Amino acid sequence: MVKRNIQNNIRRLRFNADEMTQQKLADEVGASRQTIVAIEKGNYSPSLELAFRIAHTFKIPLEEVFIYEHVELPKKK
Hints:
alpha+beta; 2 strands; 5 helices
């Protein structure tokens, strides 16, 4: 079985960007603050378009915002 997990650095990036608020980021990327909260918590995976808009806001590559983990889980017997 394979577990796929997407981590993100949005909270750290916001802090490093003069402590940008979730609302400011939401306004910049055209999303709601609740969407940004859900993405930061890992409860929601953004669309590819939104992911690129977030990366563009911080002027960094997409893979520096989102980290994809592919983990093989042991098979149950």
